[in-house]
Amino acid sequence: MNNDVIVCNPRPLRFWQRFYLLEILKGLGVTLRHFLGNLFSRKYTVTVEWPEVKREYSERMRGRHVLLTRENGSPRCVACYMCETACPADCIHIEADEDPNAPVEWEKQPKVFTIDLLRCVFCGFCVDACPKEAIIMTRTHEMAFRTREEAVIGLDQLLYRGPLSELDMGYRPYYGEPRTQIKLPIPTKK
């Protein structure tokens, strides 16, 4: 076993490298070029003057959560805990209760359904996991809170009882087009 230590001495820095003067001047040049370009031309401006100018977002944007309701006004959620299990941030809390209006006697409904928006990472796993398509994400992203308690939204704030056409729906399950079978050529014997 060879225990020799190899010492590598770095090359000594030159005068200009020691003071980083050239790199500082290059950085100042880039900053000055962008400043003057934006000062005299609005063509390259990247700042959006919000709230006067609002940015357009994708159709599948992940914003605020919404629980959908059935025709009779009860929540579609059957308290199966799949969204709570799928959540990587552990921000969803559900407590189940029996549904007195259910067509099946063992069906449940959420007694407590809360989402802590300060912990939520808006990944959409809860939407993908829901078997009843009860939870979707809207395109609403303007959420301001004064206290941490306001950021924990409950069942009464999550339920949406209006028509879906008025809801600015964002991320929801996407099943795509039905897959077609690809026909491969059958090898022939020679």
TrEMBL record:
Binds 2 [4Fe-4S] clusters per subunit. It is an enzyme of class 7 (translocase). GO terms for molecular function: 4 iron, 4 sulfur cluster binding; iron ion binding; NADH dehydrogenase (quinone) (non-electrogenic) activity; quinone binding. [4Fe-4S] cluster 2 binds at C87, C120, C123, C126. Residues 67-97, 111-140 form the 4Fe-4S ferredoxin-type domain. Pfam families: Fer4_7. This is NADH-quinone oxidoreductase subunit I. One of its GO terms (cellular component) is plasma membrane. It catalyses: a quinone + NADH + 5 H(+)(in) = a quinol + NAD(+) + 4 H(+)(out). It is a peripheral membrane protein. It comes from the Bacteria. InterPro entries: 4Fe4S_Fe-S-bd, 4Fe4S_Fe_S_CS, NADH_quinone_OxRdtase_chainI. NDH-1 shuttles electrons from NADH, via FMN and iron-sulfur (Fe-S) centers, to quinones in the respiratory chain. The immediate electron acceptor for the enzyme in this species is believed to be ubiquinone. Couples the redox reaction to proton translocation (for every two electrons transferred, four hydrogen ions are translocated across the cytoplasmic membrane), and thus conserves the redox energy in a proton gradient.
